[in-house]
Sequence to fold (241 residues):
Amino acid sequence: MKIYVTEDYQSMSRKAANILSAQVILNPASVLGLATGSSPVGMYQQLIKWYDKGDVDFSQVRSVNLDEYVGLSPEHNQSYRCFMQKHFFDHINILPENTNVPNGLAEDPAAECRRYNQVIRNLGGIDIQVLGMGHNGHIGFNEPGEAFELETHVVNLSERTIDANARFFASRDEVPRQAMTMGIKSIMQARQILVIVSGEDKAAIVKTALTGPVTPRVPASILQLHPNVVLVADKAAMSQC
Ligand code: GLP
Fold:
């Protein structure tokens, strides 16, 4: 695992954007695995700036997002499709048909997960997968205890994740209880993984994930076994390592 420690959130975002843009410059038709959450927002902002300057071109890029809430429409302002449009896709020249997020309104979420696995396969797999890390070590929405061998599947969100995400909804009751997420197997099949972590509140889980045993109780611990992981973290997130 290659680790970059940066001064703060802004420099973390810039470093992560450097890595992602290098991928796109070297292979303009890259398949990017993208993530939501507060961690990658600064990276997306930086990439938009470089796009505006003409330094990076997304016209041939294909993307697959990690996860989506079950029951939220793409237009719902807390859906991950909406997040991606607002924070990234609407500001760059990626083609709408080249972006993929699971459909939160699919009548049969399990069938939607199977379709999504096929989408990833048809794209030839993921060149670089961006990941944030939940406080309990979740990646995507793979909560502690989730089997390592799953591809995209439906999950029940943990109480801790519902609490953490409640700040984005009018009330805790409105937070969906289920999501569709790429599984650990899908994530581990990506050719490269870029993990972005910031803040003191993540310091304990970063230490556990990087130095503790590899166990489904800490989903992010599996990353110790991937041959090509880059971790970009600010000083605060690394303060217990
Ligand atoms: C969410 C997302 C994850 C994200 C994580 C951390 O629940 N499903 O993909 O990495 O929580 O979010 P944040 O970056 O806001 O701390």
Observations:
- The chain is about 30% helix and 15% strand.
- Residues 35-39, 66-67, 132-134, 140-141, 161, 165 surround GLP (CB under 6 Å).
- The first helix runs from residue 9 to 26.
